[in-house]
Amino acid sequence: MSTEILDPVAEAEEAAPSRRGLRKIGLLGWVSIAVIAVALLLAILGPIVRPFDPNLSDLSFANVGPFGSHLLGFDGQGRDVLSRIMVGARSTVLGAAFVALIAVAIGTSLAIATAWFGGKFDASVSAGLDVIFAFPGILLAVVAAAVFGPSLFSAGLALAIAYSPYVARVLRGAALKERAMTYIAALEVQGFGAWRLCFRHLLPNISSLIVAQGTILFGFAMVDLAAISFLGLGVQSPQADWGVMVSDGKTSLLQGYPIVSLTAVICIVAVVAAVSFLGERLDASSKDVLR
Amino acid sequence: MLRFIARRGAMLVATLLVASFAIYGALYLAPGSPIAALTGGRTVPPEVMAQLEARYHLNEPFLTRYWIWLTSALRGDLGESIPLHEQVSTLIAQRIGVTISLVLLTSVIIIVVGVGLGIVGALGRGTVDTGVLFASTVSAALPAFAAAVILQFVFGVMLGWFPVLGTGDGFVDGLRHLTLPALALAATSVALVTRVTRTAVREELGREHVQTAISRGLPWSGVVQRHVLRNAAIPITTVVGITIASLIALAAIVETAFGLNGLGAYLVQAAQNKDFAVVQGISLVLVFAFVITNVVIDIAYALLDPRVTLGSRAQ
């Protein structure tokens, strides 16, 4: 990669293996994509296609195992577990997706702005981000729950703010490299404005890294949001949510009926594992492209 | 070196100031007046109200109020829990021991199991290495609360080996009560440390000086101890430090899951009860612990690795 002459053919050949690498994701990659697709489908359609009312409680069925059309049985309050899993996918999966989206939006804007302006602006923003690093995401979410009352919204917002410095740090490096490229300088000399350069040229060129960071954050967000709902500081109890279900099912689990908590745990772990596997793959291939 | 420590110290103080400011300012973000936030909407007798107004110096400017709060917090006076009528510092002192023991025990597990498995995976080939990789991949995907629930069911309910709730009395019983929580808290971190250790040791094994030492016929164990592990120690120390710092906040999840009477579980409870003085006090303690641990890691890293350029002179 030390050749100084820009040879488009050589460049295309260099980029090719990573693109092929993305296509060749192997069996595990396809399984991951399938798991994520099912989770997204459930998140969108779950509340519509659920077989039973997720909040209909019949105590005479409390902790009754699977039978007939109740494929996963009932929880400690006699509610249909399968329906609750299907409905709970919405807040768990879409909640995490929104957290990742917001964090990526904030982080990307900060990264591009600091890389573009540099100097004192860069130094002061980076110092500010270091301070946010001093707050672990979970702690910020707990404080947010105390201030604004426990809800998915306050927990999600706190997590998005806590994650944005990570995105900003990773992307700032890539944006700085891109900023220093000759084509940017050439376009600047031709009189193109900063907005146009950032949005039309800089942003698309680091987009693969942005997508990878977003995917990785999506996994983190799902774990942390579920943990906060498990603590009772996120989604509130009667509402179905995977994190809430883990904590709702704990009483039954300690009495020897684990299906409620374990089903929710398996759903969370499966989606998180799939997302982080895919995220690491995307990250590796995006770094190949950017190099 | 002294200049490096001084610069990190200055950054530490700045970070702590801003963090404490944010924690204090959060009170004013809450809907309603700060007094309403402190009482959590409870009706309190007028004399308590007057006491609170005097305590929080509400007739002073905001920055003065913050300064008074911070200086009294540094003297150990974190205010009073309104629902419990007790000093926040007393409430923290009663619970901090559980959290410290939990984090210490978890750290020991992370270091022993994580580094141990990493070395075993890197030195052993074939089945051993595949096993280590598989185990670390599985445990990396287990969030603390999921690990807690699974451990409670398997070792508490099914096998009955360990208690699933509560703190226990005395050292041995306490340790028994802390075993499952520490394992749950360690699950993700052990996987991370194992992976980093495995990669670091592998990398050192492939280096020329190691290959030379082996080809000269030096004893294998000596080569591993002297040349491989010593050099691999640098990335391992960093990742161990970072994961241990992250335990400070994550302890809240495990403490709640296992009904341990620690700081984190109490923070969660206080957030649910809107006991704002307690939330502020514990957050302050946790953020201080987190930031200071990170600085200690930075300094340890600089001491360990002579190649680290101290400060930004290298640029």
Task: Give structural notes.
The complex is a heterodimer of chains A (291) and B (315). With 291 residues, chain A is mainly alpha-helical. Chain A contains 12 helices and no strands. The N and C termini of chain A lie close together (9 Å). Mean pLDDT of chain A is 78; it is low at 1-21. Residues 311-315 of chain B have low confidence and may be disordered. Helices cover 77% and strands 1% of the residues of chain B. Chain B starts with a helix and ends in an 11-residue tail after the last helix. The A-B interface holds A 130-131, 134-139, 142-143, 145-148, 150, 223, 226-227, 230-233, 243, 246, 250, 253-254, 256, 258, 261-262, 265, 268-269, 272-273, 276 and B 11, 14-16, 18-19, 22-23, 26-27, 29-31, 37, 140-146, 149-150, 152-153, 156-157, 164-165, 246, 248-250, 252-253, 256-257, 267-268, 270-272, 274, 276, 279, 283, 286-287, 290-291, 294.
